[in-house]
Amino acid sequence: MTTIDASAARARLLEIIKDKAIVHGRVTLSSGKEADYYVDLRRISLDGEAAPLVGIVMRELTKDLTYAAVGGLTLGADPVATSMLHAAAAAGERLDAFVVRKAGKAHGLQQRIEGPSIKGRQVLVVEDTTTTGASPLAAVEAAREDGAEVVAVATIADRATGAGDKITAEAGVEYRYAFSLEELGLA
């Protein structure tokens, strides 16, 4: 297996995002807001070439933070978290992933958070694209209710709509993103 350095991974990931994930045209976002473009990062976070790069880039973005698990609100966070888990394993390190359900299960163990227990652990909440901040805020709340210490929120792409300030103000955690609208050629 060949290894790729973080700057090369970041450059290639940006190329792939621009090529495969940016869709131009009028769309309604999950927030209900309308936009002239859509950044569909599941097209890259589930892509065989791009997903490993996501893990490398997101780990590089957060390398100064201490966390034992990574996850967030399903569905946007799931492939990001698993990409980071695999990137950590490839580097000979251990990182667990977790999934936050939009609502708790009514059957089985009735858990809202799936995966290895995060109780008493430092965790990083991730997302693919951040617009309003509602999804990562819900994930932060659920992780805290489960007994985790959330160290930060990190996303692949920030839509520059004030979500970072909202996350910092409401959750009291740092907010980071790998790519800005300017880098994606959208600003």
From TrEMBL:
One Pfam family named in its UniProt record: Pribosyltran
Keyword match Magnesium: yes
Signal peptide positions on this chain: none
Family matches, as CDD domains: PRTases_typeI
EC number: 2.4.2.10
Summary of the function given for this chain in its UniProt record: Catalyzes the transfer of a ribosyl phosphate group from 5-phosphoribose 1-diphosphate to orotate, leading to the formation of orotidine monophosphate (OMP).
Protein's recorded name: Orotate phosphoribosyltransferase
Organism name: Terrabacter tumescens
Gene designation per UniProt: pyrE
